[in-house]
Design goal:
about 70 residues, mainly beta, seven-stranded antiparallel β-sheet, DUF5348, DUF5348 domain-containing protein
């Protein structure tokens, strides 16, 4: 399976995060429980996106998810 790398972006119309791979190339919207990897601390870490009071990545400390480098 080929992995694609992009950046997390928040879509205000759908009220959920998406992954932007290129100018007009998006994943299509992330849903609770979807697994992905985030690049943090100089390495890729597996995580999943969830929603509580707000969207968050399990096991990842980040004030803002926008712009985080991810792959799926």
């Amino acid at each position: 399976m080929t992995q694609k790398t992009g950046a997390l972006v928040f879509n205000e119309h759908t009220d959920r995060y998406d992954i932007r791979f290129d100018v007009a190339d998006y994943y299509g919207g992330l849903h609770c429980g979807e697994c992905l990897e985030v690049f943090t601390g100089g390495k890729w870490k597996p995580t999943r996106i969830e929603y509580g009071d707000n969207w968050y990545l399990v096991g990842i400390r980040a004030e803002d998810l926008n712009g985080l480098r991810v792959r799926i």
